[in-house]
Specification:
By secondary structure, the protein is α+β, with helices and mostly antiparallel strands. The chain has one domain. The chain has 4 helices and 6 strands. The chain has helices at 10-17, 40-51, 59-66, 68-73; strands at 90-93, 104-109, 113-117, 123-128, 131-135, 138-139. The strands form 2 sheets. The chain has a 4-stranded antiparallel sheet with strand order 1-4-5-6, with no helix packed on it. Strand 5 (131-135) and strand 6 form a beta hairpin.
Length: 156
């Protein structure tokens, strides 16, 4: 709520437009049962590029802010852009259909632990390492991803 002190999101727009800013949100799951930060990429695309009354940011700037900028900031030089030799992790998005339904409680943690789940509509497909892992919000069963530890070298 600190960024909503003026009862609008105008201060956040100023921060997002600063060339030195890296947008991001998450607490590593420490508060799964109380908040759900997983919707922020969809919120950025839905609110800041399409639905906001007043000043907006371009879709191109939003995508860059959600992909290549944070990837480079944390040393993941093999991802964040579409290029030969890079990881083929992509979302195919129907921008007009982007929508965040209300969060719901699910009990899928070990021992039936609860967490908040935030779904999203408008994602036609999600690809990881070039394989479709989600289509229309449903898993395909493909699991080509792997754990990444530390900075990754840029492709040659």
């Amino acid at each position: 709520m600190a960024n909503y002190a003026s009862r609008n999101l105008d201060p956040i727009l100023g921060m997002m437009q600063d060339p030195n800013a890296v947008i991001g949100l998450g607490d590593g799951g420490a508060h799964y049962g109380m908040i759900s930060d997983s919707s922020y990429p969809t919120f950025v695309l839905q609110h800041w590029t399409r639905d906001r009354a007043g000043a907006r940011i371009s879709v191109e700037r939003a995508i860059q802010s959600l992909t290549s900028v944070p990837a480079a900031t944390v040393g993941l030089h093999d991802r964040g852009v579409i290029a030969v030799g890079r990881k083929a992790d992509l979302n195919v998005i129907d921008h007009d259909r982007l929508f965040l339904p209300p969060p719901s409680v699910v009990h899928d943690l070990p021992a039936g632990g609860r967490r908040l789940f935030q779904g999203a509509d408008g994602y036609d497909a999600t690809l990881v390492a070039g394989q479709v892992i989600m289509r229309e919000g449903k898993p395909t069963g493909a699991l080509p991803g792997k754990l990444v530890r530390g900075a990754q070298a840029a492709p040659a």
